[in-house]
Structures are given as C-alpha cells and as structure tokens.
Amino acid sequence: MALNVPVVRTNTIKRAGSSSSLGHSAIEHENDLAPVTPRSRRNSDSSVNAGAAAPTAPGLVKPPTQHRTDTTTLYAGKDHKAVTLETKVLMAKSPYFKKLLSETPEPLAEQTTFEDADETALAMFAAWVHGKQLHGPSDFHSTGHYLGLYILALKFESEELANQVIDLIRAHYAAGDLTAPPYRLQYMYTFAPTPNPLRKFLVATAAWRTLYGGEADGGLSDSMKEVLGGDKTLAVDFMQELVVLSRDASKDPRKGSKCAWHLHEGTKKCVEDGAEPWEE
Question: Which residue ranges does the record annotate as region Disordered (predicted)?
C-alpha cells in the first residue's frame, strides 16, 4: 500500500550559545523555533505535528461499522489526514484497536481521530502494521518522527513496536555519539506524560552530556536551564540520572543491553544474542 508521507516541522526551543559545541558527545540538534506546548485535542496523549493538507474526516461524521469491514481508517493531525489499514492486521498488532474494534459496534470518528498525532508517525505506524521494515532515524527530522512513533506505540499498546523504535533510536544516538537536546526532553515530557523507557533514555543522555560531554566544562546551557525550570518532574529525573552516572561512568545509556530499555508487560523478555557493535 502506498503511503503519502508529508513533511512535518518539529517544534523546538531557542538556541543557547553554550550548547552549540560539545567536546565529546554531540548534542543532537538545536534551532530557533518556538517550544512545544500542550494542546487539548481528540486523543491528545499521542504526539504532535501537523503537515500539508490531506484527505480529511469531513466534520467528524460517524464512520461505518469499522471492525466489520476489511479496512479501518485513522485520522491524524488538525487536518485529519487519513491513513487506511487492514482491520484484521491492525487488531492483531495493536491491543488498543483490538479492544476498540471488538467492543464498539460503530466507533465514533473521534475514537479513530488523533489530532495531536504526528501525521508522518501515523503513516509509519501503518507501514509497520502492514509488515514494512523500519530503518531508524538518520537525521534531525526523522528522529522527531521516530519519537512521535514511539508515543503512538505507547498509546496503541504495541510493546513490539515501542521496543523496536527505542532500539533504532539508541543505535542512531550511539553511532553519531549524540545526546538529547533540551527540546527533545520537553517534547517527550509534554506528550508522553507518564514514565517510559524512551523518556528515561533521553534524560540519561542529557545527564551524560552534562557530566562527560561539552557541558562538563561550561555548565548547563541556558536552554537546558529553561526546560528544567519549567518541569519539576523532568528536573527530578535529570538529577536522578546525574547521581547514577556520576557513580559509574561506564553506564553510558547508549550502550549495553537492548532489553534493559524494553517494555515486557505483555510480551516475552528478549533472548540476548550478543552485543551489537555500538553496544560494546
């Protein structure tokens, strides 16, 4: 199935001069766009970002009985971009939709519309559901989409997808010796408000940068101070990671076991098959 994937802007916070150049681990990326903010939209615990105009759900009219049809259409973003999936495969891959489409004879349009969802991430979710391979992020923009995809995986209760996505993000960060910039932390704490492995990983990389990277000499950047000052939960988590990493410099979050960063409430624990090169 061909997917029309739009270009999506990623919201960020303003640049701080002290964080633009790091001695060891590189901060992933920074630019001067405005910070992300929470929004009250349908199913808004998913991620954000809206792109170009696309097929919409006109007036959020109640759709046909979706779980009795061969396909199910989901809508993303403020323009309600449509993505159509095979119903049986969707239900097999997502406990969230298995429950929804089994228990609700005629789902309301608002139940299949995710206005805060990253449109590209939802298209990636559909591709994954239909067996397409995810190759992982390769740059600043694609990293944002993978963060959005992880948040959708949490919402749609797909541990398999969430675990695959965090593996790809960790590999990208390890290969590029990257750490999470402040706006990535702000994004995750805004749109994934409950604790999760990816949120913890990103905070840990930021703490690593503070202790052993470019900020080790110059202190926290202004943008990092701003983000920490605006979110008490993030600040506490950041301090906790500082304590852990300061006691053991070998605990680089980008290296080591994949399974340590996985969710396994409904899936079997991993069978470790040896470390990847970037895990050494």
Answer: 16-71
